[in-house]
Structure formats: C-alpha cells, structure tokens
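User: Sequence recovery, please. Input:
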C-alpha cells in the first residue's frame, strides 16, 4: 500500500523491496451508525437464520458489517448480484432475491421509513392493509365487510361496491416517479419530529443519517437487478410462461418482486391513490379498502360511483403511471357479495374462494404423493409445515372446518408419521423427533 496516496501497489512482490502489510481502518465511521447497521443485520436474520445465504454471511458478518457501514457512510455502496427465479403459485411470477448483504441495507432503510409511512397510513384512516404490522388479509376482509354494513345501514338500503385491480402492478411502477415522490416525502420529514403517542413510533435520527437515507434509497429504487443477476430457473420457462410486460428483462419499468423495499414502496405509492379517493368521495357516504394492487370502494350513490370509475382510471394513468385492468372490474350491490383478497364476502358470513380451495386441495394431494413415495428430509418437512399452516391460517375465521379436515385427511396415513394436528385443524406441527434433527 502506497502511504502517500493509499493506492495498492502489487509490483513489490516481484522484487526484493521490503513491504509492510496494512489493513484499511473504518474507525472514522461513528459507532452509533455502525450499531444501526448491526441492528438492521439482526432484523434481517429474523426468521431467516436457516437459509443458505444467511448461514454463509454469518461467517463473515464480523468483518463485512464495518465495511458495509463504511460504504453507506461514504456513499460508495453499490448493490451486488441478485438471484432470479420463477415461482408457479399462485401464478407465474418473476422473483429477484437480493444478495444477503443488500437485504441488510433494505432493512436499514425500512426501519427508518416505516414509521413515516405508518404515520401517513394512520392519518388516511388505516385503509391500506398490506405490509403493515397488525394488518393483513383478515383485517382487510373484516374492514370491507364492516364498511359494506355501515354504508348500507346493515343491508337495509341499497349500496354498491366497486372492486378494481391494477394491471401488472409491480412491473408498471415507474422508477423515476417513485424516487421523486420518495425524495420529496423524506425531505419534508427531515426537519420535523414525528410523535405517534407510542415510544416505538418515535423517529429521531442525526442529521447525517438523513443524507445516507436519501442516497441509499435512491440506489435501491433506481437499481436494475436484471442487469446483474444469476438465473436459478430454466431459461425456456420465461418464453413459455412469462408475458413481455411481466418481466424486468423485457420491460422498461418496474420494481423487482422479492425485495422488502419493493413491497413497502409500492404501498407508499398506492397511498396517493387512497388520498385521491378520499378527496373524490369526500361528500359521499362511502368506504374503502386497499391491499397491494386490489382495492374496493363502497358507496350508496350508484350514478356517482359509475362516474368516478373513469376518473380513478385517469388519475392512475396520469399521476402514478399505472392503469386499471380492463377485465377485472366488478360493480354490484353489496347484498350480492364480492370476492376480495381470496375471500367471498356475503352479508353476515364469509367464504373461502374456489380458487384458494382448489390450490389447497392440489397442494395436499401433492404432499400426500410425496410422503408416500420417499423419505423426506427435514428441509422438505419444514416446507410442508410452513405451506399447510399458511393455508390453514388463511382458512381461519371462515366456515371451513369440514374443508380443512378433508384436506388434511386426503394427504394419507403417512402424514401422521411426521406431523400432528393442533386444535380443530387450526395448524399442524412437526413431531419432536423430526424437530430434533433441525
């Protein structure tokens, strides 16, 4: 290492000159900022400690975390190589799995932006239900069902519900527009103190952290993972199952599905649509619920609701660079019910959608065949446990006891060799001797 300018000099290994080995020092990174990166690292490990990338990174974390903190502090951070693959359920999708090192940066960003987003969502009336703690599909269904009852005076007067879907949502997100909105949003809060009334929602960052937050957020939003990725699926699957506007490789816009920041930023983008709906229906008796790219609006004025649909489409096209799906628009009386986030909401009762029932039945039959043909290792057994518990959890709070029971029993007798059922088919659990192998 040349002491005059810090450049690396490899010539001395070819001569007899004496050299002194030195290492780079990151002592100038404030300890508080380095600690914040460690917090993001541990938050990233939560629930992922058994993954391959997490296990590999844990071996070098002590040496690489200071390096990563130095890169963020000095503004030289660049995302690494991602892994791209296709998933089949619930439909063919292109997923980019970021390098574990990049996921730490994603968590560092989200830990600081999530309180600001939460403040915005709460002031809008908690109408967004995805990627928020304490919310989810069950809360979305309960809220929409309550709004349908309220607007229709417990189904005693006429009211109508419109459900729309945004076409190719994640692949249609405009990077420049998203970064413009995020930058304006972050700068607006930079000199403000946010107090939610709860200590866990307080946001207090040093001045320098805001600059790092802006730089790292811009890098993540404007990153093109399709230009530096490793394919983990057969190439022919893209041409056979993926449309041109459903892949980042053939689309000029879009954010990668799979990143934590993509989910959070998409929810932030849709908050502007919620604001417009609140403004448009401000003088009407209405209700609303939004989950990712699905939304539903309940109103007792049919003519106004019909006139508002083109305005909603125009706002999405002109302001957010998105568009409503032309074939996924449903408008009907609330008494007829509506399908929303996998649940068919009827007056006084909710049912599981036929598509979800079919997928769960197909999965159970496939697992029954797998368990009968070969001995499964712990990883496969854990995967079966996770998938079935996900479906069983989605079935709860609906009239699905007989359906849950029939699905579990359709797996066959080998199921009880590895698992046991908890409660009234509310969840399943690996037997202790197989958990001990983990």
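Assistant: Recovered sequence (438 residues):
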């Amino acid at each position: 290492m040349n002491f005059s300018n810090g450049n690396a000099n490899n010539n001395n290994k070819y001569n007899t000159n004496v050299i002194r080995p030195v290492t780079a020092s990151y002592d100038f990174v404030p300890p508080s900022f380095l600690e914040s990166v460690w917090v993001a690292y541990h938050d990233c490990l939560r629930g992922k400690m058994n993954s391959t990338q997490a296990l590999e990174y844990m071996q070098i974390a002590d040496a690489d975390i200071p390096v990563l903190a130095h890169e963020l502090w000095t503004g030289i951070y660049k995302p690494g190589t991602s892994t791209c693959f296709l998933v089949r359920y619930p439909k063919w999708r292109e997923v980019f799995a970021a390098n574990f090192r990049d996921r730490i940066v994603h968590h560092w960003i989200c830990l600081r932006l999530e309180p600001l987003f939460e403040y915005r969502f709460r002031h809008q009336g908690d109408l967004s239900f995805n990627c928020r703690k304490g919310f989810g599909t069950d809360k979305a269904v309960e809220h929409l069902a309550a709004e349908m009852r309220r607007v229709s005076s417990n189904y005693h007067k006429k009211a109508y519900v419109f459900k729309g879907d945004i076409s190719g949502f994640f692949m249609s997100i405009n990077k420049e527009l998203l970064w413009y909105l995020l930058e304006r949003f972050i700068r607006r809060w930079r000199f403000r103190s946010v107090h939610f009334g709860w200590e866990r929602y307080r946001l207090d960052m040093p001045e320098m952290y805001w600059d790092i937050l802006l730089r790292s957020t811009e890098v993540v939003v404007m990153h093109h993972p399709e230009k530096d990725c490793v394919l983990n699926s057969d190439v022919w699957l893209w041409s056979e199952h993926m449309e041109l506007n459903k892949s980042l490789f053939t689309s000029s816009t879009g954010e990668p599905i799979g990143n934590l920041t993509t989910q959070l930023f998409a929810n932030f983008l849709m908050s502007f649509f919620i604001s417009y709906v609140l403004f448009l229906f401000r003088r009407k008796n209405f209700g609303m619920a939004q989950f990712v790219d699905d939304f539903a609006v309940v109103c007792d004025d049919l003519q106004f609701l019909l006139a508002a649909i083109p305005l909603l489409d125009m706002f999405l096209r002109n302001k957010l660079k998105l568009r409503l799906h032309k074939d996924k628009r449903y408008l009907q009386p609330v008494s007829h019910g509506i399908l929303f986030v996998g649940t068919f909401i009827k007056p006084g009762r909710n049912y599981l959608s036929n598509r979800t029932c079919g997928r769960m039945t197909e999965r159970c039959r496939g697992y029954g065949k797998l368990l009968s043909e070969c001995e499964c290792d712990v990883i496969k057994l854990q995967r079966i446990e996770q998938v079935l518990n996900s479906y069983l959890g989605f079935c709860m709070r609906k009239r699905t006891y007989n359906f849950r029971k029939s699905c579990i029993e359709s797996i066959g007798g080998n199921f009880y060799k590895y698992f046991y059922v908890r409660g009234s088919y509310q969840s399943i659990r690996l037997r202790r001797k197989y958990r001990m192998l983990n």
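The chain has three domains: 25-73, 102-350, 353-435.
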